[in-house]
Amino acid sequence: MQIINPQVQILAMSGLATAEALVQTKGINIQGFLAKPFTANQLLNFVQKIFR
After folding, report:
1. Are 51 and 10 in contact (CB under 8 A)?
2. pLDDT tens digits, residue range 6-23?
3. DSSP-assigned states of every residue in 1-52
4. pTM for the full model?
């Protein structure tokens, strides 16, 4: 998606990877990372932070 539109905001989520490992292996610009399990409030807070 960022190739098509560099302004796309990415929030990554995983139960298996750390934020650092995900960023290093994918080479993409990630604005946030949530480790599973997470609450609805945590997700909402990340989304609000990204779109400020």
Report:
1. no
2. 888 888 887 876 656 655
3. -TTT-TT---EEEESS--HHHHHHHH----SEEEESS--HHHHHHHHHHHT-
4. 0.61
